[in-house]
């Protein structure tokens, strides 16, 4: 009876370890995609700080949500080791196969983001140019006014 309980606990921990290992592999892939996207986008230093912060918050929320599902968000040493091992496995063995795929995805993301930014910015630029033209229109003297 006691042996079955111990075995059940051990199998639960092994299941949590392997699921967390897969989560680490996924996190490594997400970080790799982010790295390729930032490299292709050639983002300025200050924007990069903001985007880094956003990435880590999103990654933290994803990892926490999955750890909540996997093992009730218990942070034990084997959980941290599984995450670290998953990331290491991704970068050591999988990244070379995923780089071409993620590079194309990163390029597509950069092009989509650029197009979206242009589409959002365009009406405001047209409105500003129209406003400036209307403002400048009022500064010219009326025709036939010689300044007398």
Automatic annotation (TrEMBL):
The keyword Membrane applies. The keyword Transmembrane helix applies. Keywords: Membrane, Transmembrane, Transmembrane helix. It comes from the Bacteria. InterPro entries: YabQ. The chain crosses the membrane at residues 16-34, 46-69, 75-94. NCBIfam families: spore_yabQ (TIGR02893). This is Spore cortex biosynthesis protein YabQ. It comes from Syntrophomonas wolfei subsp. wolfei (strain DSM 2245B / Goettingen).
């Amino acid at each position: 009876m006691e042996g079955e309980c111990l075995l059940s606990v051990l199998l639960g921990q092994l299941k949590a370890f392997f699921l967390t290992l897969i989560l680490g592999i996924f996190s490594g892939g997400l970080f790799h995609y982010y790295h390729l996207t930032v490299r292709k986008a050639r983002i300025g230093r200050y924007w990069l700080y903001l985007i880094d912060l956003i990435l880590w918050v999103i990654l933290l929320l994803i990892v926490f949500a999955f750890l909540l599902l996997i093992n009730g968000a218990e942070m034990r040493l084997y959980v941290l080791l599984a995450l670290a091992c998953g990331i290491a496995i991704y970068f050591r063995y999988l990244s070379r196969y995923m780089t071409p795929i993620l590079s194309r995805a990163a390029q597509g993301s950069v092009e989509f983001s650029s197009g979206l930014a242009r589409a959002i910015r365009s009406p405001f630029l047209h409105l500003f140019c129209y406003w400036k033209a209307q403002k400048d229109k009022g500064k010219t003297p009326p025709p036939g006014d010689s300044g007398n």
